[in-house]
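Retro notes (design track)

What went well: tokenization of the new backbones is finally stable.
What didn't: we kept losing track of which sequence belonged to which structure.
Fix going forward: every design gets posted as structure first, then sequence, in one message. First example under the new rule, 82 residues:
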């Protein structure tokens, strides 16, 4: 009779372990697509960040070229008057 109680106790522990492993596997399978989507969104956000930084840099360069061109044009006009 004592052996039967011991067997029941071992079955309960085994069931708990099985349930725990099953829940872990389900959680891992469920989290996989979420992690993939997160990595995709992070890659897209980083790409957009680089794109915006490049656009700002290009605007700055174009502004400097415009200022230099305007300065040179004004200098040439002033030289012609004198």
């Amino acid at each position: 009779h004592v052996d039967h109680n011991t067997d029941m106790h071992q079955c309960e522990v085994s069931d708990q372990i099985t349930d725990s492993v099953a829940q872990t596997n389900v959680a891992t399978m469920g989290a996989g697509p979420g992690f993939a989507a997160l990595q995709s969104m992070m890659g897209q956000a980083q790409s957009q960040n680089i794109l915006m930084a490049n656009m700002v840099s290009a605007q700055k360069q174009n502004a400097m070229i415009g200022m230099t061109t305007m300065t040179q044009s004004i200098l040439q006009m002033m030289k012609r008057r004198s």
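Added context from the reviewer: Residues 47 and 53 are 10 Å apart (CA to CA).
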